[in-house]
């Protein structure tokens, strides 16, 4: 019996030591909370905002990212409570809560999180009517159809294209959706949200509420030294803020930590270690855009409700865009780097504003030539990044686009009056979007 007791005690020590190590290691501190965070958050948003079946949402968007760890992560959808709970081995837990008009938020147990706040849209989403007359005049219709067909797999895998929309001169000339999806699904932006943030900056500039080049105006950087005080909104939108908010998306990097374990993402970004002076070094990182969004929304009202209404009034409602759900973190910061959900038509409509030099429905939404601002190359980006938008000189000299993780793309080709939206859940393979875009251009009649 003494031997058995010693063995039992030894096993207990090993188990306790293992749990202590696991909880203090990168795996326990970041990776496993991140795994439960992305599972709860994505299933919540894709279920309650996008209208997807939770099992399909997990199969397309989440399990490919988790890999072998996916079998350890459980998720429970509570449709009565509008929440999703995810767990790993009963030790790591995350909760995401849906609020109408505000989407889903990881609560992280925050006592200040208002679970009852609702902000429904007052108008139903609007949809373009397919302009067959314009399409048939402007395109070889068979070639256009073939270009769109080529963007889709015979089954969901491996590219998982969910939606394609094509505008020409502001008219809908083509659209197609994967089985079970339609023009009504609000689809996830991931980093296309950064283009929304840059658009908000333009609208606020037009109204005199913002000067993107003014230093010393970012409240969360007050007291963090001269370089913090010198940082501008332009630096943040261009991702030259200089802090250690590296983005690898491996579940342990600062960006994964920010998105899925932090209650206040903007404060997390603001307090990261300073590595470079503002404007000195370009590195793609979502933390800069989150901080820029926080500063902008803080000027639009005292409460999240006031701020969301202001954002809608500035950039969405005048353009007839009534579907976007701009999600916030548990502290109320609008997640301008990654979390905007909208219909494919509204992603196209938002880009069309840029082709129309900031105008929509006869109303100016952005300053004249704001497109020139967002498409001006950021030094150090090797000619591929502007301000919240990517540049696509391999398509045409003037082409630019919104881009998001897992293959979200809204591409503008000004030389041909084209806007092409491609939405999907593509992981670890090509999307075929550029091939489709070139085929659409080739289908234009001379």
Helical coverage, percent range: 25-40%
End-to-end separation: 91 Å
* Number of helical stretches of at least 4 residues: 15
CATH architecture of the domain at 187-210 and 299-442: 3-Layer(aba) Sandwich
Q: If you consult CATH, what is the topology of the domain at 187-210 and 299-442?
A: Beta-lactamase
Classify the secondary structure makeup into a structural class: alpha+beta
Q: State the name of the first-level CATH class of the domain at 187-210 and 299-442.
A: Alpha Beta
* Strand order, largest beta sheet: 6-5-15-14-13-12
Order of helices and strands: HHHEEEEHHEEEHHHHHHHEEHEEHEEEEH
Please indicate the percent range of residues in DSSP E strands (runs of 2 or more).
15-25%
Quote the average pLDDT. Answer: 93
Q: Strand count, sense and closure of the main sheet?
A: 6 strands, antiparallel
Low-confidence stretches: 12-22
How would you name the CATH homologous superfamily of the domain at 187-210 and 299-442?
DD-peptidase/beta-lactamase superfamily
Rg to the nearest angstrom? 23 Å
Strand tally is: 15
Which outline best applies? globular
Structure explained in plain terms:
This protein is of the alpha+beta class. Among the domains are: 105 residues, no CATH class; 168 residues, DD-peptidase/beta-lactamase superfamily (Beta-lactamase). It has 15 helices and 15 strands. Strands 6-5-15-14-13-12 form a six-stranded antiparallel sheet, with helices on both faces. A four-stranded antiparallel sheet has the order 1-2-3-4, covered by helices on one side. Helix 2 packs antiparallel against helix 3 and helix 5 packs antiparallel against helix 15.
